[in-house]
Design a protein that fits this description.
The complex is a heterodimer of chains A (about 475) and B (about 160). The two termini of chain A are about 25 Å apart. Chain A has helices spanning about 45, 55-60, 65-80, 90-120, 130-135, 140-160, 180-210, 215-220, 260-265, 295-300, 310-320, 330-350, 405, 410-420, 430-445, 445-450; strands at about 5-15, 20-25, 30-35, 170, 175, 225-230, 240-245, 250-255, 265-270, 280, 290, 370-380, 380-390, 395-400, 455-465, 470-475. With about 475 residues, chain A is of the alpha+beta class. In chain A, strand 4 (about 170) and strand 5 form a beta hairpin. In chain A, helix 3 runs antiparallel to helix 4 (about 90-120) and helix 14 packs antiparallel against helix 15 (about 430-445). In chain A, the strands form five sheets. In chain A, strands 1, 2, 3, 15 and 16 form a five-stranded mixed β-sheet that branches. Chain A has a four-stranded mixed β-sheet with strand order 8-7-6-11. Chain A has a three-stranded antiparallel β-sheet with strand order 12-13-14. With about 160 residues, chain B is α/β, with parallel strands linked by helices. Chain B has one domain (about 5-80, about 115-145): Rossmann fold (3-Layer(aba) Sandwich). Chain B has helices spanning about 10-15, 45-60, 65-70, 85-95, 135-145, and strands at about 35-40, 45, 60-65, 110-115, 125. In chain B, the strands form two sheets. Chain B has a three-stranded parallel β-sheet, sandwiched between helices. Chain B has a two-stranded antiparallel ribbon with strand order 2-4. The two termini of chain B are about 15 Å apart. The chains are: A alpha+beta (about 475), B alpha/beta (about 160). At the A-B interface, strand 1, helix 1, helix 4, helix 5 and helix 6 of A face helix 1 and helix 4 of B.
Chain lengths: ~475, ~160
């Protein structure tokens, strides 16, 4: 190998385990950077032989950050296997819980993981550039972040009685218990504060946007395709809907695709250096068919969110791009905050809908089909669970494509672009490395989910020379 | 995640401690002379094995948190499969792959089987649960910080 390589390991303030290797050419100029995921569990194999109705409980253990999204995708796949029609109230309540999931995850990503970079600065003392540093420097804002995440978790808790891993509540065929008025009133009372915190976070983000003008352009600013679910009106959708695939100029590649036919459009490639697979668009090929999912992609593929405050903000967002397509990875942060507005507004609509209080919430059935696909938009993007069963409903085959996996090709492009901008020569400064990591944080990977592994994420940058020898390893 | 579910109480808890390593802070190497280390997850690959040993060597107290750390739980489901380490890899990377099917090699190798923490190192306290309840984590940390041994009777729960 005729390159020098830099490695960042572990990547910190992300969820999961990863390292970044940066390859230099003979002139010590960055040639390529790789985002490597280092953990794997194997749900596709070890779920074999389990009864299908256990799948929501097992697969949601892939992750403690977005277990509700896994529960929903898994339960929807199981709804297909049971061939049931989920009662309307159950659909509303599952959707409400998913709004709570999105709010808590987006709040965590913005306040707990990324705000230290944005507010304290990329070159701030690394030992203090974290949520505790944020609490010390900006106690008011940090506390509001904690409160917003708490609001999301409380939606989940009021519905299921438990904040994380509520798999006894979301079940194949619906949910186990209805929503009571007194529990709902608690949530309704907290709505205005949650909305105000989000609006304030958007104002803060916009203030700092000018400060990071250079970063915004070196920050994974490149064209890709975009994939996500949209509803029947082509608006923002996180629970149901059909797949839309859009090109970088805003033209439609495919629309109204039944999510159960995902494998006609999406292929998965493997590289020897990462446990995370590399999904690509089959019609374009590998690796050219790189696409992005998640908040930025979802806002790119819709013309409207469908709620007033989020729609007002979406207009501002669309001005940042051409033809309403925003390609800069840095703006995932902005998209995440706009989605948070949408989720709070949607939660309000559901809580005010009398149909959400019906006591008919669970259609029970045994196995009636031998295959099921469940798709939802998790905080980080499109989440696909696909199961096959035998005649007794025992699982024979499983595939899961997780939000973060879809972004894998984009992660590698983004990290390469930032490395080219900020890493010069054989030595790398700490703040430069943090910018490489910051682009990873903007994409907000959940690697626990992506490799179906469990745990938290550290990062390492290794620098290799053109002979392939390790010449610098940056661990702080 | 469950630790963060202490919400506002987190702010006062964090004032008492210096967080030196973990997913919320930027340290890359496990530091020396650590008072308390909370370890989540089971041990499934060689990198995790080394990190756990280092964490134990450098820490006065090690707490095993969550069902995966305490029993292996879902992470250890592959232990029931014959040659589970290669079986899970072959399914994911050879059978369910459309382009370049291959088992990744330039990654930390999976261990033959998955271990709960106490099979590898000495563990001082256990906080099971999936997730471990936030109040149990707060209780254990408060007791250890006060120099007392946490009493987990009637507090522990699995699942």
């Amino acid at each position: 190998m005729n390159d020098r390589i830099i490695t960042i390991s572990p990547v910190t303030r992300i969820e999961g385990h990863a390292k970044i290797s940066i390859f230099l050419d003979e002139n010590d100029v960055v040639r390529e950077a790789r985002f490597q995921v280092t953990d794997f569990r194997g749900f596709e194999k070890f779920c074999e032989g389990r009864p299908f109705y256990e799948m929501p409980g097992i697969t949601s253990r892939a992750c403690g950050i977005c277990p509700v999204s896994h529960l929903i995708a898994s339960a929807k796949a199981c709804d297909e296997i049971a061939s049931v029609r989920v009662p309307e109230a159950a659909t509303l309540l599952r959707r409400l819980m998913h709004m709570g999931q999105l709010i808590q995850s987006h709040a965590l990503s913005f306040f707990h993981l990324s705000a230290p970079d944005l507010l304290l600065g990329m070159d701030y003392d690394p030992s203090k550039r974290n949520i505790i540093g944020l609490i010390n420097e900006y106690p008011d804002l940090a506390l509001k972040g904690v409160k917003l995440r708490k609001f999301g978790q409380e939606i989940i808790e009021k519905l299921a009685g438990k904040r994380i891993h509520s798999s006894q509540w979301i079940v194949p065929g619906g949910v186990t218990t209805p929503l009571t008025k007194d529990r709902a009133e608690n949530l309704i009372r907290s709505l205005p504060e949650a909305l105000n915190i989000t609006l304030e976070a958007i104002a803060v983000f916009k203030k700092y946007l000018a400060k990071f003008e250079h970063e915004t352009h070196a920050f994974g600013d490149f064209p890709t395709y975009y994939v996500g679910l949209v509803n029947e009106e082509g608006e923002l959708e996180h629970y149901d809907g059909r797949l839309r695939i859009m090109s970088s100029d805003g033209s439609l590649v495919a629309d109204k695709v039944d999510p159960a036919r995902y494998d006609e459009y999406i292929g998965e490639a493997v590289e020897p250096w990462s446990y995370m697979k590399f999904p690509y668009l089959k019609s374009v090929g590998y690796p050219e068919g790189a696409y992005r999912v998640g908040p930025l992609a979802r806002l790119n593929i819709v013309s409207k969110c469908g709620t007033p405050l989020a729609d007002a903000e979406l207009k501002e967002f669309k001005k940042l791009g051409k033809n309403g397509i925003v390609q800069c990875t840095f703006h995932y942060h902005y998209a995440r905050l706009i989605e948070t507005l949408f989720c709070i507004e949607t939660a309000k609509q559901i809580l005010e809908n009398p149909k959400a209080y019906s006591e008919r919430v669970w259609a029970r059935a045994k196995v009636n089909a031998d295959e099921g696909v469940g798709v939802a938009e998790a905080p980080r993007g499109t989440l696909i669970h696909h199961y096959k069963t035998d005649k007794d409903g025992l699982i024979t085959w499983v595939n899961m494509i997780i939000a973060t996996e879809h972004n894998n090709l984009a992660f590698n492009r983004a990290v390469t672009q930032v490395a080219k901008e900020y890493v010069k020569g054989k030595h790398v400064k700490e703040g430069c490395l943090n910018r490489v990591e910051a682009v990873v944080r903007a994409l907000d990977p959940c690697l626990s989910c992506a490799t179906h592994a469990v745990g938290q994420m550290p990062l390492e940058i290794r620098l290799f020379n053109s002979e392939g020898d390790l010449i610098d390893s940056v661990t702080r | 995640m469950s630790l963060l579910d202490n919400d506002e109480a987190l702010v006062s808890l964090f004032k008492e401690v210096q967080l030196v390593y973990g997913p919320l802070v930027d340290a890359k190497d496990f530091p020396e002379n650590v008072d308390v280390t909370l370890v989540e997850g089971a041990v499934a690959n060689v990198e995790q094995l080394e990190l756990l040993k280092k964490a134990r060597a450098n820490s006065k107290v090690v707490v095993s948190i969550g069902d995966c750390a305490v029993t292996g739980n879902v992470t250890a489901l592959r232990n029931a499969i014959h040659e589970g380490d290669s079986a899970v890899l072959e399914r994911a990377y050879l059978e369910i792959a459309d382009a370049q099917p291959q088992v990744p090699v330039d990654v930390p190798k999976l261990l033959k089987r998955v271990f709960p923490l106490h099979e590898i190192v000495k563990v001082d306290y256990y906080v099971p649960g999936c997730p471990p309840p936030a109040e149990n984590l707060a209780y254990v940390l408060t007791e250890i910080l006060a120099g007392r041994a946490p009493k987990m009777e009637n507090k522990s729960k699995y699942g």
